[in-house]
Amino acid sequence: MNIVIIGGVAAGAKAAAKIKRLLPDANVAIYTDDTHVSYSSCGLPYYIEGNFTDYKSLLVRSVEEFNASGIEVYLETRVDKILVPQQQVLVCNKDEARLVKYDKLIIATGARPFIPNIKGVKDFSNIYTVRKIEDGINIREKMLKSKRAVIIGSGFIGLELLEAFVKNGLEVEVIERNERIMSSFDPDMSKLIQERLETIEPRSFNFHTNETVSEFIGTNGEVNFVKTASGKEFETDLVLLSSGIVPNSEIAADAGIEIGESGAIKANKLMQTSVPNIFACGDCCEEPHLISGHSVWVPLGSTANKEGRCAALNAAGVYTVFEGVLGSAVSRCLNTTMSMTGLTEIEAEKFGFTPVSAIVTKNDMVSYMPEAGSMTLKVIADKVTGLLLGGQAIGALGADKRINSLASALVGRLTVREFGKNDFTYSPPYSTTIDPLLDAMSILCSKIPRHC
Amino acid sequence: MNIVIIGGVAAGAKAAAKIKRLLPDANVAIYTDDTHVSYSSCGLPYYIEGNFTDYKSLLVRSVEEFNASGIEVYLETRVDKILVPQQQVLVCNKDEARLVKYDKLIIATGARPFIPNIKGVKDFSNIYTVRKIEDGINIREKMLKSKRAVIIGSGFIGLELLEAFVKNGLEVEVIERNERIMSSFDPDMSKLIQERLETIEPRSFNFHTNETVSEFIGTNGEVNFVKTASGKEFETDLVLLSSGIVPNSEIAADAGIEIGESGAIKANKLMQTSVPNIFACGDCCEEPHLISGHSVWVPLGSTANKEGRCAALNAAGVYTVFEGVLGSAVSRCLNTTMSMTGLTEIEAEKFGFTPVSAIVTKNDMVSYMPEAGSMTLKVIADKVTGLLLGGQAIGALGADKRINSLASALVGRLTVREFGKNDFTYSPPYSTTIDPLLDAMSILCSKIPRHC
Asked: Which of A46, A303, A424 sits opposite B328 (nearest CB)?
């Protein structure tokens, strides 16, 4: 039995390890065009920031470990084509091309940074994206010699790199095409994130929203100036492109595998694609949303791991279902935790709910504790049924705790009123007497008809 | 309409404020034998430790604030008797006794420290309990002049004071009658708490389990030595008694109000006692356990607040139900968070479940993050139904987050398998890729029949 896995960062690495344990006699091989396998891409911002000095900390399993457990790993080896009728893949490295037979194929090709079409974007060596190990190493090396940086895009990755750059003493300009930063949050919460970050003093960064980059200008192969459509010009030593990612789904599309509306691969809850014996998992494929029921593309490391495991189990003949995602996510930028789960108010409306929401701002613990910090919670429910739909929390470190409590309630399909029964832990270093999440739910409850 | 409230720390203070808002024309009066009203008793250990210097930070609402909103507060005024047929209470202060008429009476008398019957326990001025504002002030004052302390009892309060004393440079001996510290946890978890605390270096404290105090020996009105039944003798500058609390339910019992098996007042979900027009709330009364359905006595500040609110609403004629508690609790001792919700394995057995459990020890965040710390999670389910029953988490700060995620699932009556769908936030400073709670649930799932 030949198991071929394309890609080996999170989903692919997990799938390989799992399937080899399930089918010890199978030939399991990972093909990846990357120079590394099985690493924490999510940890790159923290490596760049300098939380730890050896990038090898990011490696989960080494090639040697894979080999020792009987898994072949082919680095810098690209799979160029899937030949469906023949159950073969065409693999190429710099020396040779060959055809490899598969009984089960697992596509875990991940995603890649979106490169905006800006004049000069391909001409300079100090324009970076952050996705692979080399990216981290290169950015850190350059950052340590830099005084100024421009970050294009202000989503999770953009703001994580903002923290890294600011903590390393750089002056940073963040340029965002949208009218607000962190646009995966609802507008009211995005606004608060920006306001909160802008209270930091001294502050060595600026946000420029509603602003697009028109041109990179440089000398000797390096960008020195970033020009915007509105005529601003920022001097810089390096540029980070963080304006989103795109799924590596072309090879699947080329093989006739069904692709979702998002551009990522469509897989069912067994991680099977539309083509027999071909599975997909991780950042290259869509997943069902547990609240809306719709297929969504939420490429995250935690999901990739679960999907990799699920694909491996089903490829090995062990029936297993991956139910879907809530879209739970968290990120830290300087003094601010940004965390969310379920649907935003905007998404809820789009999916046909009648969202109603409540917002509270409170300390995450009793105010006399020196570590107490402010946070803002937004909770969202459906006015027709009273069902909880989602929430967002920003601010102090403890914000994330409330989002995970909410995630469990979303999985349990609780109504706001049912959630009100909740009994959270209380002690001054951990919470206020009545947890802020319960306060938010009380307000939300008053906006829901009594029969729900 | 005369509303009389006996006791004004948490439940009583909350009830008073709430009912005055609901019934602005009613006469609302709080009678308390305490010198203070409306304060955070839970914050006393952190005041003693020195997290803040002004004890007034512990006060939630001052007498003046109560008065300004039209609520009378009688400090150092004891209610000695409830005259049920006459709907009156007998109140006494040092100068006078008088009878006060009530239309609705709310008993919020709280609890008091249990004083073990040890030779000399009443003879010395440096033997303390921690419950009231003066206790905190007195202990802190004495602690700052002390080198050694003995703590008797190793529950939440004992260990919180251990932290306070150790952080202030004292050598501390903790004496525990049971075979293990923190016996509200399951034995395996208690053991881990002790082991974890004992890894601290340098360590200026010792635990002595299976040990009872036989005598206090002192001179000039101060204890100098604590003698144990096994013949040990500890020199000390102060003694803290923290061997539990007892409900102040005598006045209710005396009035013929039904008392529960725990010794606390029995109230229904509207916080009504067995006598019309008399409500009870807070640490003096029992509450239903959301998992077992049984009446339990879990005296905690968060519950007191909720019950005070519920009592006020029903006393004012607004039908409101307090559904009960999960027994969620958290405490910090030095480097260790100790947190729990739902039933322990021991309680689960007692209540007729067939508990099965899983334990995992993992970091609370990705190990390459400098703040990462180890934690141990125990999750418990019923083998017959697959329903989650409870959990305990000890270790790094992030332990508490997992317990609150579990609390939401308990409120939703989720099975282990349903919980497995959960989608928690992930980012290196907040979690491991697959949250430790999901790992624990995977193991637990393998112990539950497939049809559950």
From this structure: A424
- A364-387 in b/e form (b: 16+ CB < 10 A) is bbbebbeebbebbbbbbbbbebbb
Residues in A closer than 8 angstroms to B51, CB to CB, are: 368-370
User: 3-class DSSP state for residue B188?
Assistant: helix
Structural domains in chain A, CATH included, are 2-38+59-112+246-315 (3.50.50.60), 127-243 (3.50.50.60), 336-445 (3.30.390.30)
pTM across the whole model: 0.96
| Residue in the block written with tokens 């939401």 | B408
Buried b (16+ CB within 10 A) or exposed e, B322-359: bbbbbbbbbbbbeebbbbbbbbbbebbeebebebbbbb
What is residue B268's DSSP assignment?
A: -
pLDDT classification of A450: cutoffs 50, 70, 90 = confident
* Closest residue by Cα to residue A380 from A408, A424, A343: A343
- What pLDDT band is residue B280 in, cutting at 50, 70 and 90? very high
Whether residue B335 has pLDDT greater than 90? no
Question: Are B428 and A57 an interchain contact pair (Cβ–Cβ within 8 Å)?
Answer: no
Q: Which of A305, A403, A422 sits opposite B434 (nearest CB)?
A: A305
CB contacts under 8 A, A 285-314 vs B, are 290, 300-303, 305-306
Which pLDDT band, with edges at 50, 70 and 90, does B195 fall under?
A: very high
Contact B394, B193 (CB under 8 A): yes
Residue B205 — φ and ψ, nearest 5°? -145, 155
Query: Does any CB of chain B come closer than 8 Å to the CB of residue A422?
Result: yes
DSSP reduced 3-state for A322: coil
Q: Which residue of chain A has the CA closest to B398?
A: A401
Which of B337, B411, B430 is nearest residue A414 as measured by Cβ atoms? Answer: B411
């963040």: which residue's tokens?
A174
C-alpha–C-alpha distance, residues B175 and B155, integer Å: 11
* Cβ neighbours for A95, distance < 8 A, ≥ 6 positions apart: none
Name the closest residue on chain B to residue A156, using Cα atoms. B427
Is the CB of residue A390 less than 8 Å away from at least one CB of chain B? no
- Contact of A97 with chain B, judged by CB distance below 8 Å, is answered with no
Nearest CA in chain A to B403: A425
- Is the predicted pLDDT of residue B311 greater than 90, yes or no? yes
How would you classify the pairing of strands A2-6 and A111-113? unpaired
Q: Is the pLDDT of residue A236 over 90?
A: yes
Contacts of B423 in chain A (CB under 8 A): 290, 302-303, 324-328, 341, 407, 411
Average pLDDT of the segment spanning B308-316: 98
Say if A442 is an interface residue toward chain B (CB within 8 Å).
no
User: Cβ A40–B403 below 8 Å, yes or no?
Assistant: no
* First vs last C-alpha separation in chain B: 54
Does the annotation mark B284 as catalytic? no
Contact residues, A window 338-357, toward B, CB-based 8 Å cutoff:
339-341
Contact indicator for B138, B35 with CB cutoff of 8 Å:
no
Nearest CA to B348 out of B288, B391, B408 is that of B391
Q: What is the ipTM of this complex?
A: 0.95
pLDDT at A440: 98
Distance CA A108, CA A34 (A): 12
Tokens of residue A275, six digits = 């083509």
H and E: helices and strands count for chain B:
12, 25
Q: Name which of B327, B369, B405 is nearest A46 (Cβ-Cβ).
A: B369
CB contact (8 A) between residue B412 and residue A407? no
CA pair distance B71, B68, nearest whole angstrom? 7
Other C-beta atoms lying within 10 Å of the C-beta of residue B450:
8
Residues with Cβ within 8 Å of residue B138, at least 6 apart in sequence: B128
